[in-house]
Design goal:
Number of strands of chain A: 12
Helix content of chain A: 10-25%
Shape of chain A: globular
Number of domains of chain A: 2
Order of helices and strands of chain B: EHEEHEHEHHHHEHEHEEHH
Largest sheet of chain B: 6 strands, mixed
Strand order of the largest sheet of chain B: 5-6-7-3-8-9
Number of helices of chain B: 11
Number of strands of chain B: 9
CATH superfamily of the largest domain in chain A: Bacterial phosphonate metabolism protein PhnH
Strand content of chain A: 5-15%
Structural class of chain A: alpha/beta
Oligomer: heterodimer
Largest sheet of chain A: 7 strands, mixed
CATH class of the largest domain in chain A: Alpha Beta
Radius of gyration of chain A: 22 Å
Structural class of chain B: alpha/beta
Largest interface: A-B, 15 and 21 residues
Helix content of chain B: 25-40%
CATH topology of the largest domain in chain A: Rossmann fold
Strand order of the largest sheet of chain A: 1-9-8-5-4-2-3
CATH architecture of the largest domain in chain A: 3-Layer(aba) Sandwich
Distance between the termini of chain B: 35 Å
Strand content of chain B: 15-25%
């Protein structure tokens, strides 16, 4: 092998031989910046296409609207639908937050946030209450969202019926005729086998009494937050090229038998960091084998560490938290009965959406 | 309760004269001009509630096509004719999908010729029966469960096998699960397509007994399709004999069996051991 002359491949024209650290190399690089890119990275046609799909989705709550999903500079299944939707909604005055499984600091979340900050010139934040648009994967924040906020959820699998029939054509017919008998058989079978419905994430919900909807892989804990919320929920799947929505004040009911009510996850214990008993907890194992629970929503956990009694709607001018599972006593009530089926944080393996 | 007239199913690209060029007098059901298969044509029948109509005929004579039409299972461009149910407006073959779906889940029970078409083999036996109730809108788990248990008892399927997957059931049990499923919503019409094919004589007798008892108790209008004269003789009040897609003889079952008029029926009754 011949030795490659130093700097021969360096298009930016910097001499790398003298650089001592990666940081110095990066500082030495220069490019054309955002020259040639449209505002918010996507071209105007794409943004218009996504906004049209969003409007249609809002008009038909829970219905999966096809849209022309574009190739993005990251693999499909890594949030491409969410990014296209967020970038189509953002304007320079907006503040953007990205959550990945409850945390703001994962590589994917940080990269998406940086892309938006760089191309759409938006402020970014980790504070749920300060954000206008929140893109999220697998969680709905613990803090109550308001009427001026939009939550964009990344969706890996759009059709809840695919768990009972792999044929999308047959499932589209079922949606058209609201023929959801098969998914009820699945619930029946689950109760027969396990004594209760064992669906950890992607719990099927009926939207406005019409469409069966996959709420994306959020835990059961977050499902009640969809019902009659103040904010708009947008669900975007880049790989499957579908957008659907739950508009504000829409009736969203998890599927459940009348005599086997829907139940959220039950935890024995409080968050080790902030002491919360009214949030969705993740079980972690320390190096010496100890198992402990901590809040999954890191941003709210930090606030609670400062002020342990902080209610979930502290930033809103109202009283009585009605966002998802209740606080205090009602959570304890939910922890008493039935076999323990505490689900770990929803995990879809290599599927990152 | 149930009436059909001018029922026909044509597979292919009909030339217009297919029905005139086929049938019993021509000895064929394939149109010589265009090659269209006339699965059944010019079939008229009616069934009162509490009555059982038998349809016999050799393989390929159009029995299942008629059954599919009556149970509203087949509704595409290939079907012609009129199917009417008491209490429903108009021709149900041309009714919208919504109406047909509602009738199929509530008013009609259909026992398919092939187990695979009628049951979800990966689901438990109880789940298959429950599926019909759930599709009809029942939303109380205990009610669904009790009803499924009750139907298992009525159709003599061991109730302790209820929570096993249907694919682990014996052939006779699968047939009876189909009957239990068909009866789940107390339908007013039940169509059985070859309910005993592939079963040995003792199981056959049990399946038929079960059905006859339930049918009488609930005053169901039933259509039984079989190539087996014995089955039809046992169950049916009236019988249609089909050949080459046409009804060649119709009458009270006893009359058809004892005094067959049509040449084919004579061969058929003579060939019974």
């Amino acid at each position: 092998m011949t030795e490659r002359p130093s700097g021969a491949n360096n298009e930016a024209g910097t001499d790398m031989t003298g650089a001592a650290t990666v940081g110095e190399v990066l500082d030495g690089l220069s490019d054309d910046g955002l020259e040639g890119y449209t505002y918010a990275y996507l071209d105007e046609h794409t943004k218009r296409e996504v906004r049209r799909a969003v409007l249609k989705a809002v008009a038909i709550p829970g219905h999966q609207v096809p849209f022309a999903s574009r190739p993005m500079p990251l693999a499909r299944g890594w949030g491409t639908g969410g990014i296209q939707t967020s970038l189509s909604l953002l304007g320079p005055a907006e503040t953007f937050k990205v959550i990945d499984q409850g945390a703001d600091d994962s590589v994917n979340a940080a990269n998406i946030r940086r892309l938006a900050a760089r191309t759409a010139d938006v402020e970014t934040t980790t504070d749920t209450t300060a954000a206008d648009v929140i893109q999220t994967r697998h969680r709905i924040p613990e803090e109550v969202l308001g009427a001026d906020q939009v939550l964009v959820l990344q969706v890996p699998i759009t059709d809840p019926l695919r768990t009972v029939d792999p044929s999308d054509a047959a499932n589209r017919r079922r949606h058209a005729h609201a023929n959801y008998g098969k998914i009820w058989v699945r619930l029946y079978e689950s109760i027969v086998e396990h004594g209760e419905v064992q669906i950890a994430a992607r719990y099927p919900v009926m939207v406005a009494g019409r469409y069966l909807m996959d709420p994306s892989p959020i835990p059961r804990w977050d499902v009640p937050k969809l019902d009659n919320a103040e904010n708009l929920f947008l669900f975007a799947a880049g790989r499957e090229a579908r957008i659907y929505a739950v508009p504000p004040h829409t009736d969203v009911q998890p599927l459940a038998f009348e005599d086997r009510p829907f139940r959220v996850e039950r935890f024995d214990g409080a968050c080790r960091a902030c002491g919360a008993t009214d949030t969705y907890l993740t079980e972690i194992e320390t190096e010496d084998g100890e198992r402990l629970f901590v809040c999954n929503d890191t941003s709210f956990c930090e606030k609670r560490q400062e002020e342990p009694a902080l209610p979930k709607d502290h930033h809103l001018d109202r009283s009585g938290v009605d966002w998802g599972p209740g606080t205090g006593t009602s959570v304890e009530m939910a922890t008493d009965t039935g076999p323990a089926t505490d689900d770990p944080a929803p995990d879809t393996g290599g599927d990152r959406t | 309760m149930l009436a059909g007239s001018g029922l026909a199913t044509l597979y292919g690209d009909p030339c217009g004269d297919c029905i005139d060029r086929t049938g019993d007098e021509h000895g064929r059901n394939r149109c010589p001009a265009c090659g269209t298969i006339v699965a059944c044509a010019e079939v008229d029948l009616s069934v009162e509630s509490g009555e059982v109509l038998g349809i016999v005929g050799e393989s390929g004579s159009g029995k299942s096509s008629v059954a599919g039409l009556l149970a509203l299972e087949r509704t595409d461009g290939r079907t012609r004719g009129t199917v009417e149910y008491t209490g429903c407006e108009g021709n149900l073959l041309t009714a919208d999908h919504e109406t047909r779906h509602r009738l199929r889940t509530n008013a009609v029970g259909f026992v398919h010729q092939h187990i695979r078409d009628g049951l979800d083999l990966g689901v438990t036996g109880g789940g298959n029966v429950a599926g019909k109730l759930l599709a009809a809108g029942e939303r109380e788990f205990e009610t669904v469960r009790e009803r499924a248990q009750h139907l298992f008892g009525r159709t003599e399927i061991p109730v302790d096998r209820m929570d096993d997957p249907v694919r682990t059931y014996s052939g006779g049990m699968q047939r009876r699960v189909q009957i239990a499923r068909a009866l789940a919503t107390d339908p007013s019409v039940v169509v059985l397509d070859e309910p005993t094919t592939g079963l040995d004589a003792s199981v056959q007798a049990r399946v038929l007994d079960t059905f006859r008892r339930v049918q009488r108790e609930h005053d169901v209008a039933a259509v039984v399709v079989s190539h087996d004269l014995g089955v039809v003789r046992l169950l049916a009040d009236r019988t249609l004999v089909m050949r080459h897609g046409r009804v060649v003889e119709a009458g009270l079952t006893d009359r058809v069996m004892e005094d067959p008029h049509h040449e084919y029926t004579q061969t058929l009754t003579n060939s019974v051991i």
